[in-house]
Amino acid sequence: MSLHQPQKQVVAGAVPAGAVSGQPSARRQRRDLAPWLYLAPTVLLLAVFTYWPLLQTAYLSLVDWNLNPGQSADFVGLNNYGRVAGSTLFQAAFLNTLIYIGASIPLKVLLPIPVAVFLWSVGQKGHFYRAILFLPTLISFVVVGIAFLWILNPIFGYAKVIFAELGLRFPNLLADPDTAIWVIIGISTWKVLGFNVLIYLAGLASINKELIEAMRMDGAGDITIFRRLIWPLLTPTLTFVAISTVIFTMQQVFTPIDLMTEGGPSNSTTNLFYMIYQYSFVTFDVGGGAAGTMMLFGFLMIMAFVQFRVLDRRAHYQQ
């Protein structure tokens, strides 16, 4: 007994239903719209709290206003940029910013690498030291600034007592223009060193230790292993740490500057961030503060672009 199933007839030139109009189906439209709906909350938050304030700052940099709601904002064009760029405060702040950034590379970017490699090599024995190094990161910068003000006080500070026991005179480091900036740099380094160490430890955790054992069997020493294996595989983490450190190092030193020196002595510790604060909320020169903000934004964009182009080309990403 044979079963005969009806065969569908194929008509030449037949077009599936729903395709005649040339419009996508409702299901496909919903599928294409779904990613944008997921992105909408984030895009909305970025637009409201990032891009709109940036546009507002760009507008304020072109007007003369002193935060008085009853005073109209007079358009002055690029005069604020020229006035701020030509001031001695900006020149000192820009030079100090370069010093802060230059010092952050060896102290905050490179110094944590050998510390992280050592803690990684000792395994679980290094957990205690990791906690000790990370502890300053958990302390508020306000508390850190007040503590170091007490330690470095030239009259009754703890450092002065130790120097007196040794028969030495303790200098007033924060009152000396040649040393004050290095005190701020040292305090900020002590504060963030442990955080960068943990980031490098996260990068080291992805390295297979069997590769190290294989290199040791081939007669490679510690320096060769670090130079040929660990350093190349750590370059992506190094790129992230370098870019984030340069961008955030000026924000990190704002609190100790404000608490310990207020930009002095003789503008020797101020930077571009603190200069913007002085323009905007000390002298109420909103136009000058906004112009300084836009110049700082451009400076950071250039620094990030240069770092990314230089470091990312040398980064070795594991496949």
UniProtKB/TrEMBL annotation:
Transmembrane segments: 36-55, 98-120, 132-159, 179-208, 229-254, 274-306
Subcellular location: Cell membrane
Membrane topology classification: Multi-pass membrane protein
Domain ABC transmembrane type-1: 94-307
Main location: membrane
Source superkingdom: Bacteria
Gene Ontology terms describing biological process: transmembrane transport
InterPro entries: ABC_transporter_permease, MetI-like, MetI-like_sf
Cellular component annotations (GO), alphabetically ordered: plasma membrane
Keywords, sorted A to Z: Cell membrane, Membrane, Transmembrane, Transmembrane helix, Transport
Family of the protein in this entry: Belongs to the binding-protein-dependent transport system permease family.
Protein name: ABC transmembrane type-1 domain-containing protein
Lineage: Bacteria, Pseudomonadati, Pseudomonadota, Alphaproteobacteria, Rhodobacterales
